[in-house]
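U., I forgot to send this yesterday:
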Amino acid sequence: MMNIATIGTGSIVDAILSAINELEDVIVTAMYSRKRETAQELADKYGISTIYTDLESLFSDPKVDLIYIASPNSMHFEQAYQALQQGKHVVCEKPFTSTLKEAETLITLAQEKNLFLFEAISNIHLPNIKVIKEQLPRLGPIKLIQCNYSQYSRKYNDLLAGQTPNVFNPQFSGGALMDINIYNLHLVMSLFGSPNTVSYTANQHANGIDTSGVVVLKYPEFIAACVGAKDTNGMNNVLIQGEKGYLQVAEGANGCREIKLQIGKEPPEEYNAQNKANWLYYEWEAFRDIYLAKDYKRCYELLEHSRSVMNVLAEARKHAGIAFAADKCIHV
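Result:
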């Protein structure tokens, strides 16, 4: 059995709790919120008996095995570090941390304490990712990859009105790259590993945060262009082009809902190995299986992938001149 407590009460937590409800051997026993009333509705909805308003009390709860962190990006490191120090396993919502140094510090601590640590990035655990990997050799040498994940944010209206929501605040490690383009990066890098070079051209608000932009990943034999936007909607899509054909992922990298394969002039082939409406089910199924099997090797493989993505995010931000408050922090 894996007993979980959550930090955060946003829509992603609601979706996660719904996914966990479908899984066996996983129970959510507690929630944390600074104000009890903000967690009460979710606690009632999912039958969660305990609400904490003090993090120390949560971290010291002997009934909790694992902490799921869904707080603002800039708080991921501190809360994950404290949880690991208290001997709790951790699942940290994407982006894993604000900086590469933070990610490396957490990974080292988890390994030293023989604890599980995961980044909650859903798309790399989807069954359709496995299908894509199986079909890639049929494309021949890959030459171009195009990814677009664009979703107009209601918080962008607040930004235009002169407010600074967390998701568009450098103090909270926000922006389109960290919030939405990260799905494209995880998908491409889960398939092809780390690129040779990284560049990022962004549309930036007056406060320096990126509201949209294009990351270009240069590999030895091909180029991947990753578009992520929170200031516009777009035709979300992934297109992988090889000399013998192309593979298209409908509706973008975050859900990988359907796959179309076109080889030469042959009739197109369609694939879909996913039958869950809530695709967050698959990542929590993976976390549960790794946890119950005590498969630290797989956990640390996933952590190395997350570390590599954090490195690319850091290079992209540096190229675009996007600075976070966390860049100046001196952590433990």
